[in-house]
Every structure is written in structure tokens, then in C-alpha cells.
Amino acid sequence: MKPAPFDYVRPGTLAEACELLAGDEDARVIAGGQTLVPMLAMRLARPAKLIDILRLPELAGIREEAGAVVVGATTRQAQAERDPVIRKSVPMLARVLPWVGHPPTRNRGTVGGSIANADPSAEIPLVAVTLGAEIELATTDGPTSMPADDFFIGPMLTTINLGDCVSAVRFPVWPHRRIGVGFFEISARRSDFAFVAAAAQIALDEDDCCIEIALGVGGVGDRPLRLDMSALIGTALDPAAVADAVHAAAGELDAMSDLHASAAYRRRVASVLCIRALEQARANASPESAGGAR
Amino acid sequence: MKVDLRINGARHSADIEPRKTLLDALRENFLLNGTHAGCEHGVCGACTVLLDGEPVRSCLMFAVQADGYEITTIEGLAPAPGELSVLQDSFCETHGLQCGYCTPGMILAAHALLQHTVTPSRDDIVDAISGNICRCTGYGQIIEAVEFAAARLRIANTPQPHHGALHRATAKHDAPTEGVPEADEADEPIVEAK
């Protein structure tokens, strides 16, 4: 359980980090290291060089912009969990963070690291896809971005190129006054990898009518998936309509099968958790609620 | 690679290979063997240390990444040589350990919790130690130990801004009712006081 030898570099700027990455196929980024270090210890990964980006000032911090909250890639998961801006404006992210690893791994693990790692059952990529976040990238040609849905292409696979580095995640902020979120997951034990996870966010008008809805599932397919719930917009989200919409969308999910759970089990649990998440979101969208981040 | 670390309030330097984890450096370079090596891939929590007061797994970071932090190991918790912290003593009192392998990690995870609150709920305690595996106790006595330590810290004679009501009650109880000289008497030296 000891990693193979590697060189360790801590560049002073993001541009320098991208240059180092572009110039070496065997170089890997390390930030919080909560997934990479076990991979190194088990020698599933043997990079020749580790480029430590954790202390780059360009990647730190959480800032509010018009219609979005931009979370710097090296923001620790524990820091995001406690952040008042995220609680208020991206309640779905605040809601899932306690399910990401354990308190000690959240103290080191970063938001950007979870995105770049692209585990199909991970909660932060699920929120990014469900809400339609933009992944911001630093490249040798300057900054660029792409929708989360295009960024994730398979299990632990992203469209990131040699020399690119995730710099931030831009989570959209809904303008509505009454927003509610819901989240459920099933795993062997709490904080372990989710077999199935479902996250929902809804907005209601004064008449309890749904005016915006987002629903996503993780752990079912090879990447997080957003389900089309547009049929529920303009309805009062009555249970029968919710169940119909969820069954129609979840029945077509391309689910994976492994020793933990069969594809049929994953599809069935996905439907149940989606319905529960939507119910919870509706209950949290009461006039006084702050989105149900808690 | 030359590494400068601050461990339990003291500065340490060593020449450490980049692939050496903080865990191995603490044990082998600095002889702080209280930090235990369990699974060595971030699952068991035996290697938990505090970085700037927050629990992290020392097997999931390299020593070369640990400069600039205040690192606390189990050796840094005791108030003086041969003494135990309130939390350490509570683990003994409630039989919160058997083989002791997970204990340093458990105590550091719980210590960080009690730095944030001395009124943790049972759920708070369970969450704080949820990343630490114990194969002896069944966790019951460990939770009891943390609850016991929290109760002792609440009644301890140390400043706790969030427990003003408790403090006032203690102050009233502790105030002596007899033998306190009045201001005019106090001008005279009191021989018996020697």
C-alpha cells in the first residue's frame, strides 16, 4: 500500500500548471487527493509527476455572479457545506454535501476534484448535471467552459484534454422566490458509494403551481443523468402526475448491473427515489423556507 | 525533498521522498507512533490527525503537502506528560476502547467535534466518528465516552461563552458566604490567612 515513486511539483500560477500538464502525458493533477491517493496506494495509478494545484489562488473561493454561484475548483467540500451563499442560492448542493464521503474526507476533498473524477455515483456531479451547471476549464489557450452534461462522458471519464484543468463550477441560481430541494440515496452504509441517488429542485408560484423543475439520478448509468420533467410544469405536482412522469422517464434509463445491484433494481429504486425527492422538494418549497437546505 | 512541518506546536524538518504519506512521515521520521496505520487507503480512519484543528486522514496526503498547516497528533492532546485530556480520560472511564487501534483516530475526530460544540447531539457524535472503524467496541461506549467528555467539559471551570446560564449558577454556588472580609476590615492584615 505504498505509491510508486513520482515527482512532486507545486506551480505558482494556474498558467504554469497547465503548461506542466500539457507537456507531460504522465503528469496528473492532485488537489485534495481523496480519490487519487488511494488509487496511487493501490498502484491503480502510477503517474510520473504530480502537479499540486491545491494552493493556487486562482482556484479558491466562492463568488456570486449574475444568475450564478461560481465555486472555485479547490473549494473544500466541508467549506462549501458550511457556506451561507451556497445554502441560500444553491440549496441542492448544500443538501447533498453531507452525503459526500465522511467529515475527514470532506475537509480535504474539493468540489472541483469530485467533478474531474467523474464517479457515476458521486453527488456533486449529479447536482452539476441536474441543475445544468457549467464546468469552467483552464487551458493553455486560456479559459473555456462547457455544460456539465457534455463534460461527463462515462465512468471516471470526461472530455477534458491534456493540459486542461477544472478551474471552477458555475451553478445556476434560480430567480424564483419559492424553491424546494429533495435528495435521497441508497447505499450499503451511510456515506458509501450510492447504488442510486436522486436529486430534485422545484420552484412554485403563489398558487402552488410548479413553474420550474429539475430532476436527476446518479449511480444508475455510467454518468449522472437529468430526467425530462417538463410535463409537470404548470401542474400542482399531484402524486399521480408525478408518478406517471417519473415512471415514463425512468423506464427508459440505461442502467448498469454489477455485483451490488442489478439494472432492474437500479431502475426500480431510481423511480422510487425520484418520486420521494420530488415530494420532499415540494414540501420544502413552503413560503417561509430557504429551499430546504437543511 | 526538504519538508518543514509544524507538529503539535513544534517545528520539524526532514528530507522526505514525495511518495511518503504524512502518516508514514509522522511515524518514521518524527517517531510519533500514536498515529496508527490501518488500511492505508482512506477507509478506516485509524490515521486521523488534525490539520488546523480539522480531522483529516494522514494516509491520504503526502508529507510534502503538509507544510504551512498546524498538525495535531494524538501526542499533542495531553495537557502535560503523564496526563490525559478530558476526552482521553472519558474513553478510559466508559471503556471506550479495547484493542486501542482505532482510538487515536476516534479521539482526534471527537476532539475536533468538541472544539466546535460542547452540546453535541448523539447524531452529531455518530456523524463525527462515521469515518472511523472500530472492530471491538460496537461503538456504543465510544459514543458514551464523547457524551461523557462533553458533559465534563460543560461543567468544567473553563470559559464557555455559550453557556452563560450555567456559568452564573456555578458562580453563585461557588461564592463563599462566610469569611470574606468587608472592605473596612480588609485594610487590616489577617494573620490567620497565612
Can you offer a commentary on this structure?
- The complex is a heterodimer of chains A (294) and B (194).
- Chain A has helices spanning 14-22, 36-41, 77-82, 84-89, 91-96, 103-106, 111-117, 123-131, 148-151, 239-250, 263-284, and strands at 7-9, 27-30, 49-52, 62-65, 68-72, 134-139, 142-147, 152-154, 157-158, 165-172, 178-187, 194-204, 210-218, 225-227.
- Chain A has 294 residues and is α+β, with helices and mostly antiparallel strands.
- Chain A folds into three domains: 7-52, Uridine Diphospho-n-acetylenolpyruvylglucosamine Reductase, domain 2 (2-Layer Sandwich), CATH 3.30.43; 57-172, Uridine Diphospho-n-acetylenolpyruvylglucosamine Reductase, domain 3 (2-Layer Sandwich); 178-284, CO dehydrogenase flavoprotein, C-terminal domain (Enolase-like, domain 1, 2-Layer Sandwich).
- Chain A has a five-stranded antiparallel beta sheet with strand order 4-5-10-6-7. In chain A, strands 11-12-13-14 form a four-stranded antiparallel beta sheet, with helices on both faces. A three-stranded parallel beta sheet of chain A has the order 1-3-2, with helices on one face.
- In chain A, α10 (239-250) packs antiparallel against α11.
- The longest helix of chain A has 22 residues, at 263-284.
- The termini of chain A are far apart.
- The mean pLDDT of chain A is 94.
- Chain B is α+β, with helices and mostly antiparallel strands and 194 residues long.
- Chain B is built from seven helices and five strands, in the order ββαβββαααααα.
- A five-stranded mixed beta sheet of chain B has the order 2-1-5-3-4, covered by helices on one side.
- The termini of chain B are far apart.
- At the A-B interface, α2 and α6 of A face β4 of B.
